[in-house]
Amino acid sequence: MNEFLVIGALLLSPLLTYVIVLLTIRPLIKRATSSFTKILMGDPYMENVWEMVSAFTRISPRIVVENSLRAAEGKIIDRPFGSPRKFLNFDGLVFSPAQLAIFPAKEDAKVEMKTVIGPLAKKPLTIDMPVLLGGMAYGLGVSEQVRIAQAWGTAVVGTACNIGEGGFLQEERERAKHLIVQYHTANWGKNADVLKQADAVEIHIGQGASAAVPSRISPEFLQGKARDILGLKPDETAVIPRRFNEWNSPNDLRKVVKELKQLTGGVPIGIKICASNRLEEDIEYGLLAGVDFISIDGGQAGTKGSAPIIQDDFGLPTIYALTRAVHYITKREMKGKVSLLIGGGIHTPGDALKALALGADAVYLGTAALWAMTHTQVVKTIPFEPPTVLAFYSGRMADQFNKEEAAYYLSNFLTSFSEEIQVAVKGLGKTNVHDVNQSDLVALDETTSKITKVPLAFDPNETAHMTGSKN
């Protein structure tokens, strides 16, 4: 009997404590709320805290904070991850499912996902899915652990990662199945030993979130191993110019492409450019130079950090750039000969498949993959720090980033990403991802339809044409 009384007391104790706390706090909350409401409803507007709400409807809290950072620092602020601006994106497109007019593929059908980058190169790059990781620079951007995790994760699923403009890590090369090396404007990373280990070389000319403006990393943010790999002096600022000073004509680019093909034994050589309104002219320079692939970064692309004005107000949205690039390459009769890679704001399997349907040969992922890698590791930083302190080379918690976990989560993420695309391909009645095309899409708004040349879903003229109506 005594045991039951003890158990009952233990069970009732928390409940009684809760009731007592509630009875005590409730009047206090009511009085505080009443007092605040009277102040809110009675104070003159110039002295009323509600003025903050009114102000934030005119100018967003983000802009207020960024302007405060400008006031505090007196210099250009670097915003990581790219622009929060709402660009026109792939949401204005949906797929038209197969059912009777076109039958879906059988549920046990195998979907071909293999993708060839640079089909006319002496040594084309063949990956197991049309999804690869965009450039993330070791030292200048992410840590060594992040780079090695990317190599591991992409190797598991048979796709490629890209070293960006940072230092070359031999361990990353050993872990990666396919590695794209960037040839850029900085003084490091151009030695023959590095370039000969590439499965493809991407000549970095511009990128979406930082356009073609120079980049400078202060010595305080670049210490230790990365500084040694880049060949920098202890107090030297890392500088990435935004043009090759020795280039003055298309012939100069052609010469570099030829030299790189000879040096590497014929791996695909491409260019990476941002989405300028002179996009067709930029592509033409690449075609005249004999490149094997062209990578285009749309305006939604991410970055380790660049000035907000470059992120928000430079470059075309990805969907504009992709459509124009496909049209021009097709017009030049180079479709299927020169591969087109697109990146910037591609976050979901749906985004990726829509880009492929519009004519891209493969898509780059950046921010989405980085978030997948950090996964539950973000609990090490939140709520007081952003997850960038884990992933960035100069991050204060970079030593707590677990590369084994990150590689595992990245491979899971890419596997899931690929399998979702395969389900969608079968739902369109096809068994090869590269057979998905513009005819599988419909547009939900006139702007998207006009840009992509994809018919509107409810265009009466189009409907009449399809049904043969003469009304």
UniProtKB/TrEMBL annotation:
Q: List membrane-spanning regions.
A: none
UniProt entry tagged with the keyword Oxidoreductase? yes
Q: Which residues form a coiled coil?
A: none
InterPro entries reported in the protein's UniProt record: Aldolase_TIM, GltB, Glu_synthdom
Q: Which domain of life is it from?
A: Bacteria
Glutamate synthase domain mapped to chain residues: 120-429
- Which Pfam families does the UniProt entry name for this protein? Glu_synthase (PF01645)
Query: What general EC class does the enzyme of this chain belong to?
Result: oxidoreductase
| GO MF annotations, alphabetized | oxidoreductase activity
Say which family it is in.
Belongs to the glutamate synthase family.
- Stated name of the protein: FMN-binding glutamate synthase family protein
The species this protein was found in: Aeribacillus composti
